[in-house]
Amino acid sequence: MLFExxxxxxxxxxxxxxxxxxxxxxxxxxxxxxRGEDPAPPWRVYSGLGWTELTEPESAVELxxxxxxxxxxxxxxxxxxxMTQFAPLAPGVxxxxxxxxxxxxxxxxxxxxxxxxxxxxxxxxxxGDRADWLAVVTAEGVFPVPATRVNAKRIPxxxxxxxxxxVSFTGVRVRERSEADPALARQIALTGMALTMxxxxxxxxxxxLEHVGTxxxxxxxxxxxxxxxHKAADMHVAIERAAALAYFAALTIAEADPRRRVAAxxxxxxxxxxxxxxxxxxxxxHGAMGFTWENDLQFALKRAKAGELxxxxxxxHRALIAEECHAVEL
Length: 330
Known about the structure:
- Its cofactor is FAD.
- It comes from Amycolatopsis acididurans.
- This is Acyl-CoA dehydrogenase.
- Pfam families: Acyl-CoA_dh_1 (PF00441).
- By secondary structure, the chain is an alpha+beta fold.
- The chain folds into 3 domains: about 5-85; about 95-175, Butyryl-CoA Dehydrogenase, subunit A, domain 2 (Beta Barrel), CATH 2.40.110; about 180-330, Butyryl-CoA Dehydrogenase, subunit A, domain 3 (Up-down Bundle), CATH 1.20.140.
- Helix content is about 55%, strand content about 15%.
- It contains 10 helices and 9 strands.
- The strands form 3 sheets. Strands 2-3-7-6 form a 4-stranded antiparallel sheet, with no helix packed on it. A 3-stranded mixed sheet has the order 1-4-5, covered by helices on one side. The protein has a two-stranded antiparallel ribbon with strand order 8-9.
- A hairpin with a 2-residue loop joins strand 4 and strand 5.
- It is globular and about 80 Å long.
- The two termini are about 30 Å apart.
- The mean pLDDT is about 95.
């Protein structure tokens, strides 16, 4: 297992970074929030460049690179939900350019003739209000459902860029079940969320370093103060640690390593702890500027914090890791 990017992966990272910088600048993110601008153009670019074809587990590291860069840019498209939540649960269902979301709980399936009937309400479905397809996880299996057959309502969340919805299923009849492995799909979703959080945290650090490198107090650049350096260093260490675990999780998925379940939990837990450090230090080092709507810091902070609350918090995943270690000892 190689723990460094290959030359091709470094080239891929640089290419993705250039594309994201052009297609998803801070002005677009602010335009989506302030003026309701359409986030579809960057999605069409991502799809046209083949980024939506990174669906095989063997492409996990390349997908991870894309996800980190999109997290860094606070990407407003449905890429995260489509690629890390829907696609692993319903491979080959969506047509090129179509979007997807996953409903992990709240829905039941009962057998009815030659099919099943879905009932219930799935809450906190990422991009559930704008997806073309939904992958519905039930005790009876995973069912792909066209979005036109459900009732989805976007709910307000503190990250104004994210789309989170409640999706209601009332007598939705389905015939086909997905053959995907829900456990593997869950690991991909956790790893993808962790990488998105890492990217957002990197953006917070970049903005913070820019601020402390120009802001003056007592006639000196505040970045020269030892206490400020310590906080910035803590942010950097937390990000690098979370990034290492997130990419390790992607590697275990790419190589079908049996450690991937624990690796995904470790990645999500570490990313959650990372955002806590980065959020607190980033806000403090920005001072009052960090609380203003005009400062773009808010978007990265909110994306990182939202990632912590979705798919289980750091505490939940730490508990899972402890259970795994205890089982091994026994």
